[in-house]
């Protein structure tokens, strides 16, 4: 048709140049292409087919598995900002491919395999009197890097894959965290029992459902987080059927509590806008003063609040718990006495409601800095409020590994804070006393279940290695590793603190190692775990760098977006806006919005459990799992 148009225009009197331009426009081709078609038609009576696409190109990852692993290993090791050396470039990758991969492919050719078929390589003379070597060009190296999912840019915020896919992190994720998380979900009210026919209507393949998801009558359990609609958007009669699969022996069900901290700053405003030509705006030199927020949301609920009367009930419960711990201590039980503290680390709004977050103005001349003790006090207030609001539920807290979350309680046993002998001084201060321990495994002298005091008490004999000491010289001080091991019958001749050094080190002769491997020293729970246990709950620690499994991270992002839109560059405005950004409004933290965030975190966890994906491949797999959510059938639509 393009050539017909060309000859028609010439027959109508247009000169050749104009006729070619018109024909090219009609055929959506260049003038040069139309001229080439005309030459082919005159010479051969037909238009020659283009060579484009005749030869299938291959790239690095389409080769054998060994090459694939090598290339992935190079990318994981060399991509990103490198410390103490220049960052790797496409040229470095090209040199690596030419020196490592190409010789491997040449070896395959010796076995009769056409390893270079479809690869964009060229022959290059490297040295005189030597046959030319096959190499790739810089443009090919760049193309291969892009096909492996790499980009060259300033750096993006997102998942930290280097630590995210660390071997120990992955082992913890698959062996401990995910089994505990999905076991907890069986006790959560996120399940809908459906008959077989109803489940089919919802798009559930009943035949492939696992036995744990089946009901005795042939129906199945359907998780609300597997549905496309948020729980709040489902029909009311369906919401009324939501329940848990199981209950704990005391009849309670589980509720997941997601905790985290975030910082809001006064000069943190909107990032992008349309500007007129030549328009400039003043840029703040710093992000300004800030407010740190420590908050807790409930799965599929969000931030929660209580009235003053309910807070008073929580304080009465706390007084009873403190009195019970003091009574247990008087009975000789190895417990830590809890001291009463008023509930004062929950945000109170203008309506007198107390919310599950705390605002903290950090700084040297303000409230100081956030510490593990402050975090524990805030979390204790949240849990006491939770117990009043949800007495029939067990709180299961999900926390990340920030420095405030893994701190140990004052008095927790630790060989790192203990000398060989009695007492001692560190950094100019006397070593702090440690709480008694309950021995968890039999020792030669003390059986399991025995309570051993780590501090000399009034009436105790002097240390066996210093019998000449007077009571004033050892009572009230740490016993030290040597005395504790001797009391357990674990002290052997020739023992020292480290058991020697270098190749001659013998850990069986190391007091620090032997005592540190005792279960009551090695398996010491963090303050956070003990706090959850005291409140009748449990603690789940996220795998490191797995913020995508914590929906409160998305809550922070939405809240910051709202505060940026309402930023007036003052701390006073920030004090007002931060609590407003947590309101359950449609443009902020509406229940359906929070449920969507919880659904997203659940999908990430489900994907990790089912596929064990690593690195950037997880993003692609997440989209696949997200697409499997079941839409609401027409007959269920309101």
Describe what this molecule looks like in 3D:
The structure is a single chain. This protein has 21 helices and 16 strands. It folds into five domains: 2-44; 60-147, no CATH class; 191-243 and 592-636, no CATH class; 253-268 and 293-407 and 529-589, Nucleotidyltransferase, domain 5 (2-Layer Sandwich), CATH 3.30.420; 415-498 and 506-525, no CATH class. It has helices at residues 2-11, 16-27, 31-44, 65-78, 90-110, 138-147, 161-164, 167-185, 196-201, 236-239, 308-330, 372-389, 471-474, 481-488, 511-516, 519-522, 527-534, 552-565, 571-581, 591-611, 617-626, and strands spanning 122-124, 133-135, 191-194, 220-223, 253-265, 290-298, 305-306, 347-348, 354-355, 357-360, 393-399, 425-426, 429-430, 437-438, 451-452, 538-541. The mean pLDDT is 87. Strand 8 (347-348) and strand 9 form a beta hairpin.
What secondary-structure arrangement, pairings included, does this model have?
Blueprint lengths: L1 H10 L4 H12 L3 H14 L20 H14 L11 H21 L11 E3 L8 E3 L2 H10 L13 H4 L2 H19 L5 E4 L1 H6 L18 E4 L12 H4 L13 E13 L24 E9 L6 E2 L1 H23 L16 E2 L5 E2 L1 E4 L11 H18 L3 E7 L25 E2 L2 E2 L6 E2 L12 E2 L18 H4 L6 H8 L22 H6 L2 H4 L4 H8 L3 E4 L10 H14 L5 H11 L9 H21 L5 H10 L12
Helix pairs in contact: 1-2, 2-3, 5-6, 11-12, 12-17, 18-19, 20-21
